[in-house]
Amino acid sequence: MAVEASPQRVVSINICADELLLLLGKPEQIVSISYLSKDDQYSPWADKAADFPINYAGAEEIINQHPDLVLAGEF
After folding, report:
1. How far apart are CA 45 and CA 22, in angstroms?
2. Which residues pair with 55 in a beta bridge?
3. How confident is the model at residue 3 (pLDDT cuts 50, 70, 90)?
4. Which region, left, alpha or beta, applies to residue 68 given φ > 0 means left and ψ of -120 to 50 means alpha?
5. What angle do CA 42, 7, 25 make, to 5 degrees?
6. pLDDT confidence tier of residue 2, bands split at 50, 70 and 90
7. β-pairing, 10-12 with 54-55?
8. Whether the predicted pLDDT of 71 surpasses 90
9. Per-residue pLDDT tens digits for 41-57
10. I want to staple 18 with a disulfide (CB 3.0 to 4.6 A). Which of 33, 43, 53, 63 is the partner?
């Protein structure tokens, strides 16, 4: 039975997915999170999000980050 590796480079482009990544992911896996997660007006976890780079969900921006996994909402 083959064992598949977990993603090493994870990007989140949705504030709800950011929460899951911040709560369940390892800090070394997190490449970037959405910019809204650092805004305490929208995000109750802004303090934790402050430690990570942000993104604006642009396709070219995300591709250049070379993620193994992108977390997104339905859109």
Report:
1. 8
2. 34
3. low
4. alpha
5. 40
6. low
7. unpaired
8. yes
9. 999 999 999 999 999 99
10. 33
Side-chain half-sphere of 16: how many Cα atoms within 13 Å? Answer: 3
Q: Which two tokens stand for residue 59?
A: 């396709």
Beta strands in the chain (DSSP E): 10-12, 30-34, 54-55, 69-71
> Six-digit token pair at 58?
């642009």
Residue with the bigger pLDDT between 18 and 2: it is 18
Amino acid residing at 41: Q
Q: Which position has the token pair 């896996």?
A: 29
- 37-52: b (≥16 Cβ within 10 Å) or e: bbeeeebebeebbeeb
Could you tell me the two tokens for 16?
């709800």
